[in-house]
Amino acid sequence: MLNMLTYLAIALFTGLFAGKLMKIFKLPNVTGYIIFGLIIGPYVLKIIPEDVIHSMTIISDVALGFIAFSIGSEFKLSYLKKIGKSPVVIAFCEGFGATILVDIVLYIITRDIKFSLVLGAIASATAPAATIMVVKQYKAKGPVTDTLLPVVAIDDAVALIAFGISVAIAKIVGSTGNVDLTETILSPVIEIVGGLLFGAVLGIIFSALIKWFTGRGNRLAVAIAMVCLCVGISNLCHFSSLLACMAMGALLINTSTKYSELFALTDRFTPPLFLLFFVVSGAELNIGILPSVGLIGVTYIIVRVMGKMWGASLGAIISKAPDEVKKYLGPTLIPQAGVAIGLSMAAMTVVPEFGPKIRAIILCATIIYELLGPVITKITLKKAGEIASDL
Description:
single chain
């Protein structure tokens, strides 16, 4: 068995090769990272063993922390005043649109309200990482992109709210005794509010630190330390690490005059980290479970996308967003990964009788969404005129 550094080198070279190959086919780099990660992973060629993949979780944690941190940088007050309430309205409509539609359709098929409620709640979650990578790679610009970035940031909070509400209802429906509703309702509230407050405090500290440390190397070290601290403490306190890092980025960009220099530094540091993250994410995908999802899994995969698209269009109409947003935003919200997988693990304790089935469906959906999502996002943004036609 090779050592960890050798496996990291293999993953990096695999990602570099995949990126070059994707340019030939004019596909997003992230699609190549995931596909080739899948190929070298423990479920296909077995070049990187399963236990090594599991030991690489720190890469995923840090990469997602930096992705959320960069999303937070989109929340500059002057920018938010320009785009208005539209992203908030759209995020709630597309999140709850997916939840409600999946709830209804699955209940019609299964006649089991607890199962439908919990799986429907997970449907609201969207994975920002792949979408953000496509936007960065092709330097997408326009009203759809301007709305998309804050929507995927807010989506995490919407998913946690939807899950909290749905679990509370599921517990009431399936209860034969007393249900601790206070704990059920407070848990997602603490995860959301705690994450946002903790991230905001770190953002203020971050702003002070980059005034004190002036060298580029020192500032990059501060950025890495702050993201690691934010993710680490959030996980210990059961806060949403994504929301915490997002809040930290938002506070930093609104309280510091040095943010542009800092983000220029992190933009040079993060590409290899993101490459590793997506290669490892691909290696974690077990395509062997795809045949196990059945009618319910296929229904979930299709209906969730319909709910996202209809909900995004409805939110755009309500908030009077530009016509391009009404037409093109929905398909860019397809990817689903980290938060959804985390919620599926929580479902193992909420509805243990359905836990394994829900987890299998979510893992299968993740494979399909993560492979197709980036390509669909690129095609959609290109149709919207926000990616150059020759890319």
